[in-house]
Design a protein that fits this description.
It is a single chain. Helix content is about 35%, strand content about 15%. It has two domains: about 200 residues, NAD(P)-binding Rossmann-like Domain (Rossmann fold, 3-Layer(aba) Sandwich), CATH 3.40.50.720; about 80 residues, UDP-galactose 4-epimerase, domain 1, CATH 3.90.25. By secondary structure, the protein is of the alpha/beta class. The mean pLDDT is about 95. The relative contact order is 0.14. Helix 1 links the parallel strand 1 and strand 2. Helix 7 packs across helix 11 and helix 9 packs across helix 11. The longest helix has 21 residues. The strands form four sheets. A seven-stranded parallel beta sheet has the order 3-2-1-4-5-6-11, sandwiched between helices. The chain binds uridine-5'-diphosphate. The site of uridine-5'-diphosphate has 14 residues, from helix 7 and strand 8.
Length: about 325
């Protein structure tokens, strides 16, 4: 049996739970930690059936002792939706700071490879387009999104300090907008909001004029990229995301078409510091790992809509 053990923080969340499923299917032993502030045990129904899986409810602001060896520590615990981090700014800052410290220290003790789930938010409202890893970003340090942006930037700095001072084997992955089954219906992000509204024949809430852009990566593509980086010795930072850019208005229209939603579109005020454009330059991961997304937005949305349509009565 493969005794390679991977610790996944935030393993009950959207990305974390898909990661646990995939790691188990590849034969790894998986220890999943989550404080369940936004994660859910429902997401772990598949993983829980496996005897190589352990779940512990834990708040990573506090130290945790793990018995036995750990080969990898994947730090994915974070509040990642703007609506969530606006509601819980201090917990968001702690996930990027204290929890990153706790997990780096654990990786150091176990001599495990450490992977930090960072974010395209480190680029802020970018002045360089598309965003390459060398770009340092344009972030408002005191704005409403700063709890997320700055704590992730701090997390990256702390990870590099452990790499330089303790020679820890680390990697930083900057994850761009990702979507798919298991996003929370009420998590406030564009994809779940639009799908939920469309399935209930309500108007889709487009913020501003919908001219801001994002690029959307289907969850399975992202997980494949994460595994390739995990198995390598690359330090990063490395962008992972879909380089096809869409305006939010175009996304809304596509969701309406695929759902046959009858509520149309309603325009609402643009949130403060909402980035105007965002699109990853994935030249580096393409070159290093021969990785690029395979699933088109329309195809990924269909799978996501199907999953959501079974849950449309949820609040
Ligand atoms: N957005 C929108 N309507 C919504 C939710 C989001 O128009 O109901 C916009 C939001 O203002 C942003 C984009 O969609 O410009 C992506 O937002 P999301 O919260 O999904 O992720 P972000 O990239 O901002 O972290």
């Amino acid at each position: 049996m493969n005794k390679t053990t991977v610790l996944v923080t935030g393993g009950a969340g959207f990305i974390g739970s898909h990661l646990c499923d995939r790691l188990l299917s590849e034969g790894f032993r998986v220890i999943c930690l989550d404080n369940l502030i936004t994660g859910s045990l429902h997401n772990l129904r598949r993983s829980s059936g496996c005897n190589r899986f352990i779940f512990k409810k834990h708040n990573l602001e506090k130290y945790i002792a793990i018995k036995g060896k750990l080969d990898f520590v994947l730090h994915f615990a974070s509040l990642a939706s703007p609506a969530d981090y606006l509601k819980f700014p201090i917990q968001t800052l702690n996930a990027g700071s204290l929890a990153t410290y706790t997990t780096l220290d654990l990786a150091k003790k176990k001599r495990a490879r450490y992977i930090l789930a960072s974010t395209s938010e480190v680029y802020g409202d970018p002045l360089v387009h598309p965003q390459r890893e060398e770009y340092w970003g344009n972030v408002n340090p005191v704005g409403v999104r700063s709890c997320y942006d700055e704590s992730k930037r701090f997390a990256e700095a702390l990870t590099m300090a452990y790499h330089r001072v303790h020679k820890l084997n680390t990697s930083i992955i900057r994850i761009f907008n990702t979507y798919g089954p298991r996003m929370r219906i009420n998590d406030g992000r564009a994809v779940p909001n639009f799908i939920h509204q469309a399935l209930n024949n309500r108007p889709l809430s487009v913020y501003g004029r919908g001219r801001q852009t994002r690029s959307f990566c289907y969850i399975d593509d992202l997980i494949e990229g994460i595994l390739r980086i995990m198995r390598s010795d690359k330090i990063g930072p490395l962008n992972l995301g879909n380089p096809k850019e869409f305006t939010i208005l175009r996304l809304a229209k596509l969701v309406l078409k695929l759902t046959a939603g009858k509520g149309g579109i309603t325009f609402k005020p643009l949130p403060q510091d909402d980035p105007r454009q965002r699109c990853p330059d994935i030249t580096l991961v393409k070159k290093l790992f021969n990785w690029q997304p395979a699933i088109e937005l329309g195809e990924g949305l269909k799978m996501t809509i199907e999953w959501f349509s079974k849950r449309k009565r949820f609040p």
